[in-house]
Amino acid sequence: EELEKIRQEGAQQQDEAGDGADARRESDEVNRAEIERRAKEVGAWETKPYEVLAVETDCGAKDLKKAYRKLSLMLHPDKIYDTALRELAKIAFMDVVAAYEVLGDPEKRAAFDDMGGADQAQFHTYWEWKQYGGGTKAKDFYTGDKLISKLTESLWPRRVTGKKIWLVEFYTPWCSACGSFVPIFKQIAKMLENDDIEVGAVNCEANKAVCSEWFSIPSYPALMLVGSADHGAQQTYGQGKSKGAQEVVDWARLIAEEWTWLFDHSKVDVMHSEEEFEKQILDTEDLWFVVFTDGLFCGPCRTAMTNALRLDAALHGLAKVGAVDCEEPRNHRLCFERMGVPSPPHAPQVRIYRKGKKDAKSAPGYTGEVLYNANEIAPQIALQLTERVARHALSDEMPSTALGTGRVGDFQGDDKESSKPPP
Q1: CA-based end-to-end distance of the chain
Q2: On the CB side of 6, how many CA atoms lie within 13 Å of its CA?
Q3: Left, alpha or beta for 379 (phi > 0: left; psi -120 to 50: alpha)?
Q4: pLDDT at 277 exceeding the cut of 80
Q5: Residues paired with residue 225 on neighbouring β-strands, in sequence order
Q6: What are the beta bridge partners of residue 324?
Q7: Are 380 and 307 in contact (CB under 8 A)?
Q8: What is the pLDDT of residues 201-212, one digit of tens each?
Q9: Are 153 and 169 in contact (CB under 8 A)?
């Protein structure tokens, strides 16, 4: 299907240019060195498919398809005038096709990443073993589906990266509702095929740490939109909502649109050490809101990071927003000794650091102030109040870059059903 689209595009471009002999000769000279290099390195797809397609190892499915189409158009025989160069292009094209056959299939890509491509014959043996259930007795619902990537504990940090937004289903093979949802989720993936939303699934029987420790999934099937650890974004599709394909797609597109804007316009400065915290926060005169999280993957931590992005968007130019991962050993002294963050496991804590001088000389022992107690007020309510009070109190300082409407999207509360992980 993809090759047919490429052929049609090539034919259309040729029709638009007429015979285009001069244009093809010019194109030959532009691409000659690259085509000759690729022809000499034929077979590179076996161990270096990412290099053949000229993509990063953490690229998304849509990035792969875009790269494949670009290379296929460059190497298309109808685009090349010189006969000898055309033959070289055919050789190079076969490498591109072979590389895409591996990386364009989520299952094969996962198997290749696990093996590292050191031995292609061994990779095929491993691939077949995986297809027949090797390594786990838990049945995977989406094996072989080209639009739904299986996400595991080891694959997650390699796939869910950068600004990519993922719609993820969490399921178990023994859950009858999960089995009934399979055709609907496949339909959802098809409907989102051309959106900037990646689609994945986690088998919670085979990846219990992801479902219980990282996300505390309360029931199955569960749907979430998640971003990378860099952004910490997460939003759960309500269990009480209809899981019809159109309803889920509409929800995913709405949230993804907001997140895309937030990722481009908001910035949460993550502090990686006590020294960095002092330099960026205490040694400045800016007003700061800082989230202290218990790691990057816990559900409440991700919700807090999503809310931090929204807070920064609303107060952009008026205040700065930061985060400290208290799970990091380098931050233990800062979190637990200096700032008095409760011992883990702990809920995310948001502290405010005043505008004006607060360095060690001007304010010895200054630790800011806890913004709210999560046992007394819901976090999303506290942050809504914080945003509104700060925006009005500092309205005379509001720059044109600040959103200033209080409507960046609703702040999220923690899913109360998340407190008890599933068996």
Answers
A1: 42
A2: 20
A3: alpha
A4: yes
A5: 167, 235
A6: 271, 292
A7: yes
A8: 999 988 988 998
A9: no
Residue tagged 């046992």 (tokens) = 375
| Sign of the torsion formed by the C-alpha atoms of 104, 106, 111 and 113 | positive
Residues of the chain with pLDDT > 90: what percent? Answer: 33
Tracing tokens 């380098």 back to the chain, one arrives at: 330
Q: How many CA atoms within 13 Å lie on the side-chain side of 103?
A: 33
The mean pLDDT value of the chain amounts to: 82
167: which strand partners? 199, 225
d(CA 256, CA 254): 6
Residue that is written with structure tokens 């205040």 in the block:
319
pLDDT category of residue 135 using cuts at 50, 70 and 90: very low
Nearest Cα neighbor of 72 from 89, 49, 50 is 89
Instruction: Give yes or no for a contact between 28 and 85, defined as CB atoms under 8 angstroms apart.
Output: yes
Question: In terms of pLDDT, which residue wins out, 135 or 59?
Answer: 59
Let me know: does 226 contact 299? Beta carbons within 8 Å.
no
Rg (the chain; Cα; Å)? 25
Environment class of residue 297 by beta-carbon count within 10 Å: exposed (0-12), middle (13-18) or buried (19+)? Answer: buried
Give the tens place of pLDDT for each residue, 44-76: 877 888 999 999 988 888 888 899 988 888 887
* Tens of pLDDT, residues 393-409: 776 665 555 554 444 45
pLDDT-derived band at 370 (thresholds 50, 70, 90) equals very high
Angle at 333 between CA 332 and CA 335, to 5 degrees: 65
Query: What would the DSSP string read from start to end of 39-106?
Result: HHTTTGGGT-HHHHHT--TT--HHHHHHHHHHHHHHT-GGG---HHHHHHHHHHHHHHHHHHHHHTSH
Which of the four pLDDT bands, split at 50, 70 and 90, describes residue 169? very high
